[in-house]
Design a protein that fits this description.
With 548 residues, the protein is an alpha+beta fold. It is 49% helix and 21% strand. The protein folds into 3 domains: 172 residues, GAF domain (Beta-Lactamase); 132 residues, Beta-Lactamase, CATH 3.30.450.40; 121 residues, 2-Layer Sandwich (Heat Shock Protein 90).
Length: 548
């Protein structure tokens, strides 16, 4: 009897008992490896080793059946050497592998004489074997591969029922493969959800369309193992698309945003633009490699396609185009968000522009109408006092009326200036800011570095930011000094108003600055208020000029 190198040779009930114990021990060792998460090459080595020793075989193999070929995933031979891993054989004949695959059940070949095809006999001679047993590796009800054990001695076939027992090992291999597939699927799902979450965070954060699309093409490329990814838009030219954003694994395949591409007829890209449905295209005479594409839909309109490409011989896995749709939907949401923001900014700008024009018209009307009439009346009263003989009482009444008229005229001028500063229209931003500084209740220094003439709406916004800030300084800051700094660089106009007061200002509590946010943001700019307690207040307005 031997127990180290293989199944016992002891005959009778005792031999069967020992053989069963050895088999269970071998199965338990393999099962323990599987339970601990061992997979791939390490598990295959362990399985073929156990099979070879347990069944007293000269060779043991685990093979993957791939339609017209079989590929050796792992092998063991006498002496423990592994010589054939990765080798691919042609599938056919009535070899042990073909018998197991076609029946889906364990099988055996006791000798070369059992073979009926020349293909199988040539394979037998090539491998130098005389007897084999095999069992199917079944996944999801289909034969995935085969486990075999072979002997070279024609007078030493495998004992009866050995192929059935070999099936127990094949079942363990199937379980290990299923576990590995599940782990890979879970890892892939986690990776996909993580990528989607990263992109969704950018979309929710209001990041620019360019930044979001760049992130999407990068994430899709990494997740799907693509060689190139692009978001393209059709602009009305037959079989032509414009690249909006792109990513590639190498410079050779890099696409430049704005470039015009001409997808092949029948390609996934054209299929999406024609049908609005996710699509794929495999290699063809017109297209090298495989592609998947998904529609990018924004506000119920098809605006383009998100495409991914792989080189020849590397097709995308099944349902990849469906998974791509999730990223395309985020692209569509980003485009819709940016359009909504653009429409909101345009609407705000129209409102601000209309308000400014109305204020300016009212100021002109007051200046040219009521204000001039009041001046005329004041002059007439003064002439009357000078030329007409009047009693002291009458003279006093007329002089009192003249003084009241002068006060009313001053108030009317202040009202007109509040509606729209005529100095801003007539002389520009610099003199208008100097005028505000002169009227400020605390010393105010203005540094104006803007030499060119800015758009009127930008000048108005900067003027009102300074005016409101100085008003707040007078009311709340308890400051001894205010500095105003206006500049224009890199296409952005900036104005800063800083005081040395008590700080603690909150724009949300009715300080007057809250209303300026809409005016500045309507022009695509931003208004920032920094007002730590005891450290004064700093108001910053930045307005992009290039886009106006």
């Amino acid at each position: 009897m031997w127990q180290v190198d293989g199944m016992t040779d002891l005959e009778g009930p005792d031999g069967e008992f020992v053989r069963a114990a050895e088999e269970q021990a071998a199965l338990r060792r393999v099962a323990t490896l599987i339970a601990s998460g061992v997979a791939g090459r390490e598990l295959i080595v362990a399985v073929t080793h156990e099979i070879g020793r347990l069944f007293r075989a000269d060779k043991a193999n685990v093979m993957r059946w791939e339609a017209d070929t079989i590929r050796v995933l792992g092998d063991w031979s006498t002496g423990g050497s592994m010589l054939e891993q990765g080798r691919v054989y042609e599938y056919g004949g009535d070899t042990i592998t073909a018998r197991v695959v076609e029946t889906g059940s364990p099988g055996r070949v006791n000798s070369r004489a059992d073979l009926s095809s020349d293909f199988a006999r040539r394979r037998w001679d090539e491998l130098g074997i005389e007897a084999s047993i095999g069992a199917p590796i079944v996944l999801d009800g289909r034969v995935w591969g085969v486990v075999t054990a072979s002997r070279r001695d024609a007078n030493n076939p495998f004992p009866p029922d050995a192929e059935r027992r070999l099936g127990d090992f094949a079942a363990l291999v199937a379980q290990a493969i299923a576990n590995a597939d599940s782990r890979r699927e879970m890892a892939a799902l986690i990776a996909e959800q993580s990528a989607l979450r990263r992109v969704a965070t950018l979309v929710a954060g209001g990041r620019s369309q360019e930044e979001v699309l760049d992130a999407i093409t990068f994430e899709v490329g990494a997740l799907f193992g693509a060689s190139a990814v692009a978001f393209v838009r059709w602009e009305g030219v037959q079989d032509e698309v414009v690249v909006v954003a792109a990513w590639s694994a190498s410079r050779d395949q890099h696409l430049t945003p704005g470039a015009r591409e001409h997808p092949s007829p029948g390609s996934a890209t054209l299929a999406v633009l024609e049908t609005g449905l996710a699509s794929r295209s495999e290699e063809s005479p017109d297209e090298r490699g495989s592609s998947i594409a998904a529609p990018v839909i924004s506000n119920a309109q098809l605006v383009g396609a998100l495409t991914a490409h792989r080189p020849p011989g590397e097709p995308f896995p099944g349902e990849a185009e469906v998974r791509l749709r999730s990223f395309a939907d985020l692209a569509g949401q980003s485009i819709a968000n940016e359009r909504a923001q653009e429409e909101l900014r345009a609407s705000r700008a129209r409102i601000v522009r209309t308000a400014d024009e109305t204020r300016q018209r009212l100021e002109r009307n007051l200046h040219d109408g009521a204000q001039q009439r009041l001046v005329s009346v004041s002059i007439a009263l003064r002439l009357a006092v000078a030329k007409m003989p009047l009693s002291d009482e009458a003279r006093g009444l007329i002089m009192s009326a003249s003084e009241e008229l002068t006060l009313a005229l001053g108030e009317l001028r202040d009202l007109a200036r509040g509606l729209h500063p005529s100095i801003l229209t007539d002389l520009g931003l610099g003199p208008a800011l100097e005028s505000l500084a002169r009227r400020a209740p605390v010393p105010c220094e203005v540094v104006n570095e803007i030499e060119e003439t800015l758009p009127s709406q930008v000048q108005a916004a900067m003027y009102y930011v300074v005016a409101e800030s100085l008003t707040n300084v007078a009311k709340y800051a308890q400051a001894s000094r205010v500095d105003v700094h206006a500049s224009h660089a890199a296409g952005v106009a900036r104005v800063i108003v800083a005081d040395d007061g008590v700080g603690g200002a909150n724009p949300d509590e009715g300080s007057g600055l809250g209303g300026l946010h809409d005016r500045v943001e309507a022009l695509g700019g931003r208004l920032v208020v920094e007002s730590a307690a005891g450290r004064g207040t700093r108001v910053l307005a930045e307005i992009p000029v290039a886009a106006l």
